[in-house]
């Protein structure tokens, strides 16, 4: 997004439509209206909540008061009582959030279909706040902290589905990709804030419960802000249309686009919503039948397996090894582990902006493959230095090794945050046809949360047994992830979603996908209809007059996006 002064013009499509369409208003529109900017800023707070709740636990595990209340006591050789977390206890505390998010993401969709996207966001903000209350109210019961994180996870997981959904169903096509990236950016911002607040309370409230209760309590600001703020905005136009509120849907589009009622962009968008609604209405296969149909569709099993694998290997890059247990990893180094965590998360947040540039200027495949090689080298050095050079029992004897660990952890985060962090979500949004996108993305997201939990839970056990050699495992998985991208992922840079779908249907070689020349739109539409992946295939016969106009609208509105940001 470049600001309010940038305009999107439509003169080049004036001759593409019917006689009726030529009489519409084709005046330029702001690329980012004030309404869409405010919506993107507020709704993306769902990502901030996600990142903030994920990032805070790393510091809690090292707060003395938190250890004393919820850890396990032992007596050292000097007869002093010390407190720490066993691998089981720390794994459960960290990992139960991921289990909650997995459940929340699965149950949020049917609730959103029943009460609407807007009210659903508010409802799940309340659930998240309840989880915060349960945690803050804990005095010494470890189980209460676990339950509180589980409940908060329900809300965080639901918001991770609802926020992108609300953005995608409301935003103008030419800024939709930027808004999705803003959600990812806010996730990294939330992790960064959690690290900063942990450092502040550790320095000033170290020996009392304020050291962790303040950090959790600040989360209320974000949940209350989003929960009430979303009520200022209208329901998404697509949901309103499906509920028969056609005028409300049009008014919402007019406000978000900052366009008059008879503008060409509003006309085309309403036609597209109508076409998709008609296709959905004539193709009611039921819950189970919809999944059976999806897996049987051409190349859909291939793409679903690819999406699940990409999300799995995003977790297996090893990034959460640092973000969840960063303070624990570096507690033996002479630099404060809390300061180290702030450094890592500052890099994670700041360089994400670079990733937004790389994804459109160098493509998905090249960026992800280079990222895999980058992270492989970092983990190879990190694991070797940690295992062979660092004196684990007395790190003060090897200060140089400790500094090398921090430096390469920072270099790793630089590679992750500019490639695999944001770009996997871009790929997942591109590789599925519209007809099956919601179900396919749900399965891929479930893979992400499942591996998120597995890594969070088992990392303490693994590091206890093999210490820094755990890094060799992530080095290997980064190689496998890069190979998956090389052999199976299509290059989507500058492509429309229809072109990407056609590449998969035609079995284009992923290694040659960047040079693939798309057939004419009419031929591409025929290929997709025959394959059954075109969303309006069921209604194509009943709306032959409208379909060309809608297709022309889709093609023309993607052009400004391709030259500015990305197609999502």
Describe the structure.
The protein is mainly alpha-helical and 568 residues long. The protein is built from 25 helices and four strands. It has helices spanning 19-22, 34-43, 45-60, 64-70, 87-115, 117-136, 142-170, 173-204, 210-229, 237-242, 246-257, 264-282, 287-296, 300-315, 319-329, 337-350, 352-361, 364-389, 399-418, 420-430, 437-466, 470-488, 497-505, 521-531, 546-564, and strands at residues 7-8, 29-30, 72-75, 81-84. The strands form two sheets. The chain has a two-stranded antiparallel ribbon with strand order 1-2. It has a two-stranded antiparallel sheet with strand order 3-4. Strand 3 and strand 4 form a beta hairpin. Helix 8 (173-204) runs antiparallel to helix 9 (210-229) and helix 18 runs antiparallel to helix 20. The two termini are 14 Å apart. 52% of the residues are buried.
Low-confidence stretches: 1-5, 536-568
Order of helices and strands: EHEHHHEEHHHHHHHHHHHHHHHHHHHHH
Distance between the termini: 14 Å
Percent of residues in helical segments? over 70%
Major β-sheet profile: 2 strands, antiparallel
The whole-number mean of residue pLDDT values reads 79
Topology, number of strands: 4
Shape: globular
Strand percentage lies at under 5%
Overall radius of gyration: 25 Å
Going across the biggest sheet, name each strand in turn. Answer: 1-2
Which structural category fits the helices and strands?
mainly alpha
**What's the helix count?**
25
């Amino acid at each position: 997004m470049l600001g309010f002064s940038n305009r999107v013009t439509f003169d080049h499509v004036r001759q593409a439509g019917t006689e009726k369409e030529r009489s519409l208003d084709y005046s330029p529109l702001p690329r980012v209206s004030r309404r869409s900017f405010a919506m993107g800023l507020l709704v993306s707070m769902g990502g901030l909540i996600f990142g903030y709740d994920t990032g805070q636990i790393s510091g809690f595990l090292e707060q003395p008061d938190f250890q004393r209340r919820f850890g396990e006591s032992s007596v050292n050789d000097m007869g002093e009582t010390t407190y720490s977390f066993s691998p089981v206890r720390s794994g459960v505390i960290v990992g139960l959030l991921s289990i909650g998010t997995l459940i929340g993401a699965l149950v949020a969709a049917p609730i959103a279909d029943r009460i609407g996207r807007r009210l659903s966001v508010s409802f799940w903000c309340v659930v998240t706040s309840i989880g915060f209350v349960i945690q803050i109210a804990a005095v010494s019961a470890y189980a209460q902290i676990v339950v509180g994180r589980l409940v908060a996870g329900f809300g965080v997981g639901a918001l991770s589905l609802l926020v992108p959904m609300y953005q995608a169903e409301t935003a103008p096509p030419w800024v939709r990709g930027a808004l999705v990236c803003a959600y990812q950016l806010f996730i990294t911002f939330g992790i960064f804030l959690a690290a900063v607040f942990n450092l502040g309370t550790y320095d000033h409230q170290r020996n009392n419960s304020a050291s962790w209760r303040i950090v959790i309590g600040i989360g209320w600001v974000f949940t209350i802000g989003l929960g009430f703020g979303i009520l200022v905005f209208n329901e998404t136009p697509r949901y309103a249309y499906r509920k028969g509120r056609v005028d409300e849907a049009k008014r919402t589009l007019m406000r978000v686009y900052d366009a008059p009622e008879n503008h060409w962009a509003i006309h085309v968008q309403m036609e597209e919503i109508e076409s998709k609604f008609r296709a959905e209405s004539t193709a009611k296969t039921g819950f189970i039948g919809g999944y059976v149909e999806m897996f049987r569709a051409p190349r859909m099993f291939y793409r679903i397996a690819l999406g699940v694998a990409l999300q799995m290997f995003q977790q297996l890059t090893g990034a959460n090894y640092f973000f969840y247990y960063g303070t624990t990893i570096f507690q033996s180094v002479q630099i404060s582990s809390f300061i180290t965590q702030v450094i890592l998360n500052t890099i994670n947040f700041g360089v994400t902006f670079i990733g937004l540039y790389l994804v459109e200027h160098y493509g998905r495949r090249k960026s992800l493959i280079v990222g895999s090689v980058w992270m492989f080298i970092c983990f190879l050095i990190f694991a070797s230095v940690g295992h062979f050079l660092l004196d684990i029992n007395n790190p003060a004897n090897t200060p140089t090794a400790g500094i090398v660990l921090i430096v390469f952890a920072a270099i790793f985060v630089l590679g992750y945050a500019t490639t695999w962090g944001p770009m996997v979500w871009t790929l997942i949004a591109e590789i599925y046809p519209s007809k099956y996108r919601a179900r396919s993305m749900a399965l891929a997201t479930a893979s992400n949360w499942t591996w998120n939990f597995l890594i969070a839970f088992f990392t303490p056990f693994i590091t206890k047994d093999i210490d820094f050699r755990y890094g060799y495992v992530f080095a290997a998985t980064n190689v496998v992830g890069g190979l998956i991208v090389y052999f199976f992922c299509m290059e989507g840079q500058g492509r429309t979603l229809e072109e990407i779908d056609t590449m998969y249907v035609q079995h284009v070689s992923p290694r040659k996908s960047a040079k693939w020349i798309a057939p004419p739109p009419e031929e591409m539409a025929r290929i997709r209809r025959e394959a059954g992946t075109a969303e309006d295939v069921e209604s194509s016969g009943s709306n032959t007059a409208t379909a060309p106009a809608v297709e022309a609208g889709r093609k023309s509105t993607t052009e400004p996006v391709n030259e500015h940001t990305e197609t999502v």
